[in-house]
Amino acid sequence: MDPISATALAALAGGIGGEAGRQAWTALSALVRRPFLGGEADGALVVSSGEAELAALAGNPEELERAHQLRTALAVRAALDAEFRLALDKWWQQAQSVRTGESTVTNQISGGTQYGPVVQGRDFNGLTITAHGSGDPRTTPDGIHGPTRPDTEGTAPGGPGSRQED
Q: Which of 16, 21, 29, 108 is a good FRET partner for 144, with 20 to 30 A between their CA atoms?
């Protein structure tokens, strides 16, 4: 299981991630509230189910120390309860898709000359790109012609089947 990020826990508790973040936090809350027998042994070390840490973080999501405490409680419980560990791992895999602001995006363009709009980023919604070009072929500084726009008959100037005027 990948370690759960305290920063992500704090972000989810603080409402980051919109509806998906709220659903992830609700799912974690339900998971933590499942019965945990590992914390009720007579004469043995008492282990937290994580409920107290969950409530403390929900009340103060800006305090990263509370997120670290919840992360620790979850890890200890997962080490003692295989069923919980599997459910927590599944939850964490899903929760990582929530945009909490802690991931990075790297964009790179290589391998030639690009003509027209280039959009870089992550998770675009409702994006419309309109590009306007001329009918004349573009010329690079080396004098090499770039992509051309089809003429009114649907053929590229100078291409097969194009009209050539004398």
A: 108
